[in-house]
Design goal:
The protein is an alpha+beta fold. The protein folds into 2 domains: about 1-50, no CATH class; about 60-150, HRDC domain (DNA polymerase, domain 1, Orthogonal Bundle). It has helices at about 15-25, 60, 70-75, 80-100, 110-115, 120-125, 135-150, and strands at about 1-10, 30-35, 45-50. It is elongated. This is HRDC domain-containing protein. Pfam families: HRDC. GO terms for molecular function: nucleic acid binding; nucleotide binding.
């Protein structure tokens, strides 16, 4: 992950704002942190954009359709795709309830990673590229619970010493 910093002044923000928007349009954004710095006429927004160039990511190696979208049905195993589809349904319902875009909760790539890795904790969720503490705290329990409800229960290993 790489970082890019922007300073967006309150007075005449148009040019720096356009620079930020252009940067976001051209890169795969993982997270954006913004803080308001109050200093009278010199007040500004400090913006940190965390981004990557797709190296080693699912999107970088996945098959894309003619529109440039990843076909997760081709990329994921049947079991993973079933989990991914259910997570997308949960994301859609949650986004509609909150009045936000679904990708503001988790991206398709993040949902695919959650399904593939069978995420079972918030700490594991934080290891998914682009998921920070805020989204893990806000949505993690809900998505982990959904994923775990779809997985078969683990059967105890009869040969394991704890089960003897």
């Amino acid at each position: 992950m790489k970082h890019k910093f922007f300073k967006i002044p309150v007075v005449n923000p148009e040019d720096p704002e356009a620079d930020l928007n252009a940067f976001c349009d051209q890169h795969r954004i993982g997270n954006i942190d913004k803080h308001f710095v109050a200093d009278g006429e010199n007040s500004f927004w400090a913006v940190c954009v965390t981004w990557s160039d797709n190296e080693g990511s699912l999107a970088g190696s996945a098959k894309r359709s003619s529109k440039g979208k990843i076909d997760y049905k081709e990329v994921l195993s049947d079991d993973d795709f079933t989990l991914y589809s259910r997570l997308r349904e949960l994301r859609k319902v949650t986004a509609e309830r909150e009045g936000i875009a679904p990708y503001n909760i988790f991206t398709n790539e993040q949902l695919a990673a959650i399904a593939q890795r069978r995420i079972s904790s918030k700490s594991a969720l934080l290891e998914v590229d682009g998921i920070g503490q805020t989204r893990a705290d806000k949505y993690g329990d809900m998505f982990i619970e959904c994923l775990q409800s779809l997985l078969p229960p683990e059967t105890p290993d009869e040969t394991h010493p704890d089960h003897a």
